[in-house]
Amino acid sequence: MVRDGQIALAVGAVSKSYGATVALERVDLVLKPGEVHALLGENGAGKSTLVKVLSGVVRPDSGSMSLDGGAFQPRTILEARGAGVATAFQELSLLPNLTVAENLMLPRMPRGVAGLASASAARSAAAAILKRYELSRIDAGEIVSDLSLADRQRLEIVRAMEHATKVLVLDEPTAALAEVDWLFGLIRQATARGVAVLYISHRLAEVRALCSRATVLRNGRSIATVDLAGASDADIFEMMVGRAVRSEKADRPVRAAGAAASIAVDKLSGGQLKDVTFALRQGEVLAVAALEGQGQRDLFRMLAGLAKPAGGVIRVDGKPTTLRNPQAALKAGRGIAYVPEERKTEGILSSLTAAGNITLPVAGRIARGGLVWSGLEAEAAASVAASVDLAARYLAFPIADLSGGNQQKALLARTLLTGASTLLLFDPTRGVDVGTKQSIYAAIRRFADAGGSVLFYSSELPEVTDLADRCLVLYGGRIFAEFSGDELEEQRLVGALVGHAAAPKGAAHAAGLEKAS
């Protein structure tokens, strides 16, 4: 509950520069106890830098911060936590080679009778924490890298909530979560205790469900703090990008139902996937919608050559094909290229520049005497960067220094540079801003209009309804429903996602209609 007249956290005229690059310029922000306050802005607007300042990761060059009326100048994450400010980071800060218990307990591990760190005591304490947050199904002794991305996201959130006694910062907390009720319940419990929550998300529906006020950043500056009840989505988008943003719904040509299939799968099984049959046509954008754990990850990994099917047949351009690895997928038919779910660990090579990451598939073509020539690398990267709206000046930057949105553009550019005629995109706009989404949508549409095929999974239903020509809904590992044309709307999708709504007549795929048991 918001406590009127009180201030939990105040940020005044905070600035931060990295050499000639200004990340924050006189940013102001005020959070009230018990409030969920949104922080909005495009990738590169300064949100991540402000989060790092609040978390003690970086020190501001100027400006002031106060917490409960006292000076707040954290020099480390531990200092910020000690003061009651904790952050769940978008780029997860968990240590993947340690256990769940160790991640929750560090840096203060429970001690045994001899005064030494006790693994069993840590597991017991962590299990109690997981139970309190309704996550008892997660084994406290499991190595974090073995968890799904969604469970790693949940663990990141739980660790932050354990330390946030005054301010909780949630940076894109639902980016990997298909269902949000668990998180929203925890946020309401935190605000009931008087904790102020700074909520960073590109999903305005979530922002409106949770927040009453929002501060908008653009180019490192705080543009305005607005009451969300009085600001339309269009108003907010315009503040974020400095111009009106067109509707994501596009007038797309009708894809010919009789077009040849670029990929056809027959009774594909493996992992959580069960007897899935469908065809992806040339020139088509086909979406997959599903709640977490319905087999969508297994499907994409099989088609990308990263997982072996337990049964079924995959045909590429009409020929039965065994996709043993991503290289085999790229060479099959006219080529299949994949943009993975987790760009930080599965997509980018952080030691390389953006240009180096983009040109990886064609490194042999731009090498001379076994060495990659920087001029040829820059030329090859520039040839596709414009198609995804990636500014040429970013090509020479280390890719780790780019915003998440620009990293995602670089990954999409890399798939385009392969020359593959089929793209597999797993949640391609996860955690990116509205402007970057528009660039990615436009690149996908151009690719399909030129005859390419796109299969994509998205955790955002508006993205599915706006971008896809058809949508397959997975439930219980099977195709439960198929929608196209006027039937492709959010209300129908929501029902099918939970297995409660029958597919409309004539819209369900012949091989995937039986309801999952």
Structure commentary:
Belongs to the ABC transporter superfamily. This is Sugar ABC transporter ATP-binding protein. It comes from Kaistia nematophila. The chain has 517 residues and is an alpha/beta fold. Among the domains are: 188 residues, P-loop containing nucleotide triphosphate hydrolases (Rossmann fold, 3-Layer(aba) Sandwich); 142 residues, Rossmann fold (3-Layer(aba) Sandwich). Helix content is 31%, strand content 24%. It contains 17 helices and 22 strands. The protein has a 6-stranded mixed β-sheet, with helices on both faces. A hairpin with a 2-residue loop joins strand 1 and strand 2. Helix 13 packs across helix 14 and helix 14 runs parallel beside helix 15.
